[in-house]
Amino acid sequence: MMLILRKLSQFSVPVEELVHIYCMYIRSVAEQSSVVWSSALRSGEEYDLERVQKVALRVIFKDCYL
User: Fold this and answer.
1) For residues 43 and 21, what is the distance between their CA atoms, to the nearest angstrom?
2) What is the pTM of this model?
3) How far is residue 6's CA from residue 25's CA, in Å, rounded to a whole number?
4) Burial class (CB in 10 A: 0-12, 13-18, 19+), 50
């Protein structure tokens, strides 16, 4: 799924569109049914979700990501 963002960022798609695509396609899949399993997350799984978000933001914002 992250490949979608990488390819689109190569074609100078606006940042707003990339964020929208991330929320629609990647975040929705990563957080599917989070209401059910959020209380049962282990620290490693929380880290994995955060890592997905960090990678996506790094792809979207490139050198401007801090």
Assistant:
1) 27
2) 0.79
3) 13
4) exposed
